[in-house]
Amino acid sequence: MSAEAAPPQDRPVLLREDHGGIATLTLDRPQARNALSEALIDALAAELASIAADRAVRAVIVAAAPGPVFCAGHDLKEMTARRADPDRGRAYYADVLARCSAMMQAVVRLPQPVIAAVEGLASAAGCQLVAACDLAVAGDKASFCTPGVHIGLFCSTPMVALSRNVAPKHAMEMLLTGETVPAEHALRMGLVNRVVPRGQAMREARRLATLVASKSAATLKIGKEAFYRQREMGLAEAYDYAASVMVENMLARDAEEGIGAFIEKRPPRWRD
Fold it and tell me: Membrane-spanning regions, if any (predicted)?
């Protein structure tokens, strides 16, 4: 969570760079600890929608402007200002949280895999953003927390993504205590995939993104969607659903090409 001042209105709050089939989205509010302002939430939502329809993009990296904080969560100054509304901000808070939740779900529903590259602190909704990504790489000085309890505000929406990434008792400990978890502990918990020396998170995220981008985009789209859908099902239903997905996948052109290439001992030529 952040209570820092908002950036000048003419400065972009989100940067996008595309290279080699990888789109990098960089949170760019360093003077506000890269907090998720309304403008940043909307910018992320817009870029994710654009990327979803862009066949040239095969993987996505979410990073942040250099500094001690990856993302401090919601912009508390922006939110607190609406307590002066006639309804004490109820309608505004409902709208902002709904937009943020929709943006987090867009990360999960994006056809392309999304990798977080974390240097510094990922707090509250910033931790939620990391948890929403498919993969995460952290510098060894990165840290993670859901500190809402310190200010009387339980991190209920970050809880959704967090509890789907780590074991229940780990999630509850973070949520109930608000304590900060170092990168190595986040790795053991399953919140991140890799811990690398400080300053190397982006390099490792790009390596992973390049590896992912070399696969069939159509196959990864099928697999990512299936992964998240089956996780919400009972065991028998999940197996029935996964089997039906695999049948359709076996009939896809890229599966035919990939299996043929394996048998013929040659590199596959994906048609996506």
Answer: none
Neighbours of 101 (CB within 10 A): 17
Residue corresponding to tokens 């992320």: 44
**Predicted pLDDT of residue 272:** 77
CATH number of the domain located at residue range(s) 14-213 in this protein: 3.90.226.10
Domain 217-264 has CATH 1.10.12.10: yes
Shortest CA distance to 127 belongs to which of 185, 81, 200, 208?
185
Cα 179 from Cα 191, distance rounded (Å): 15
Residue 115's pLDDT band (cuts 50, 70, 90)? very high
Whether pLDDT at 3 is above 60 = no
Domain ranges of the chain: 14-213, 217-264
**pTM to 2 decimal places:** 0.93
Report the helix count and the strand count for the chain, using DSSP H and E: 11, 10
pLDDT, tens digit, for every residue of 207-243? 999 999 999 999 999 999 999 999 999 999 999 999 9
The answer to whether residues 167 and 190 touch, using CB atoms and an 8 Å cutoff, is yes
CB atoms within 10 A of CB 255: 18
d(CA 32, CA 109): 28
The DSSP secondary structure of 123-152, one letter per residue, reads: ETHHHHHHHHSSEEEEETT-EEE-GGGGGT
Alpha carbons 191 and 198: distance in angstroms, whole number: 17
